[in-house]
Write a structure and sequence with these properties.
Layout lengths: L2 H11 L7 E4 L2 E4 L5 E10 L2 E13 L12 E3 H6 L5 E2 L5 H25 L3 H12 L5 H13 L3 H18 L5 H18 L1 H18 L6 H4 L1
Antiparallel strand pairs: 1-2, 2-3, 3-4, 4-5, 4-6
Helix pairs in contact: 4-5, 5-6, 5-7, 6-7, 7-8
Amino acid sequence: MKARDLMKLVKRFVLPHLEGFRVHRSLVYAHPVDMVLRGFVFQPLSMDPNAFTVEVFAQPLYVPSDCIWYTFGKRLGWLKHRRGIWWELDISDLRQSEAVFREITEYILDVGLPFVQRLATPAGFVQYGAKASGVPKDPHVREAIAYSRILIGDYAKAARELEHLHRELIREQEDYPWMKEMAERVETISKLLQQSPEDAVRQLHEWRDWTLKQLRLEKEIGEGS
């Protein structure tokens, strides 16, 4: 099953039930996009041409990235039943397809939307992000939450969290090269925050626009900011 064939069915059977959502490739996302990209990714299984799963996620765009990541996300089946679910689809059987997507839509409305709605804003990440990730001590989680604090005006606590995180990243970066890039970002924001909170906020907005471009969602830059 090709991704475009899957998404044609998603547009037909799922999208009409999700007010304010748009489709982009395999992504169904909430519009307008402000500082957080949130939605659902429909992923075909390479080993089985008739199977696919659905990822639920919220991604703080002000943490620069060139891809969608699921640190703040879960599979839809896990949110509903605490287990992964791969749906089987026969695209030649319209009635079977409709039944499959009816179930998926019910799952989205029941558990998917509440998950992404809690993380719709930087304030939501500060309040719920650590728990939603399931790995509150992970550097990616801590980075996102510290930046979120800056955006809601909690500058003092953000500065402390960034200082602690930067110290740990510097200590571990020789063993984990990806930490070097993160440490550079954290240092950049920390210095800007000391210089002027407005400068730090401006940088986070610039990273938000950069990430949208990398995700081929440039059209959202002017609409959601």
